[in-house]
Amino acid sequence: xxxxxxxxxxxxxPCPAHGNRDLRGANSLRDAGANELSVLSADKFARDxxxxxxxxxxxxxxxxxxxxxxxxxxxxxxxxxxxxTALELLAPPIPHPPVGVHATAVVSPSAVLETGVAVGxxxxxxxxxxxxxxxxxxxxxxxxxxxxxxxxxxFFPHVVLRERVTVGDRVILHANCVIGTDGFGYxxxxxxxxxxxxxxxxxxxxxxxxxxxxxxxRAKFFETRVGRGTKIDNLVQLGHNVRVGQHAxxxxxxxxxxxxxxxxxxVLGGAAVVNNHVTIGDAVMAAGxxxxxxxxxxxxxxxxxxxLPHRQTLREQGSLRRLPEMLTTLRKLQEEVEALKAQLxx
Length: 346
Hints:
By secondary structure, the chain is α/β, with parallel strands linked by helices. 17% of the residues lie in helices and 27% in strands. It contains five helices and 37 strands.
């Protein structure tokens, strides 16, 4: 495990003391032990820092707390970002299949595997497909015909890429992720739901990560596209012909209907839903459980059902909470009016 000095060097900050201390993991300030690293990221955790048993702490320079001489404290500008670097050093290695093709894998003779590709047990690679250098395919991955996969990708067990899908470089697909499922398209012909052929494709750009159980549907025609650097959580559904911009964040259980356009840097909170043919502008933030039914202008924060500007949603929710009291007041006023009417008619 890394020494404290190694972590300080990686963060490019001085190591105040105990540089030869072994750190074997990371934990919260309350739960950390003498060989664990922790982080002080906000003033509200200063009390936990004062009593922590952590072997070392990463802390923000601008926070208001009294550094403890007995706890080596690495001072940084952004403690959460610094923790990312530290965790990369502390994390146990992820087991990957070795370079080469496992004996149980089925690889089409017309498929092309570039140097350094690792193909695990029971992987299937279809005709005319290409897998880029140093890509790792864990057990049970299925790559259909005429699929293009870039280099340095990692596909975890039972990922499925249907035919004619394109995936860029350094893409991570977690277990049971499916790319290229048929788009959900049917037309009532008077007797049955006629299936609309989905003849398009899916393009996943570089540096995308997609969580377990997520499904990206192929386009009815042309393409469904996920932009460079976008991160998608578990159990997310993107419908046919959806276009997601660069560096978006899509949290768990989000559902996006067909032909939606999502701009660059958009954040969709957990379980948000988006109606079909909606356009979401760049840098929009949608709170969890939002129901987005109409276009949203760039740089807007929305929430609620239906999704409205967040301040408006808060005002409306505040009014709803006061509704019982307002109804009681209204009844009293009605009674007073009726009493006045009765006096006037005497």
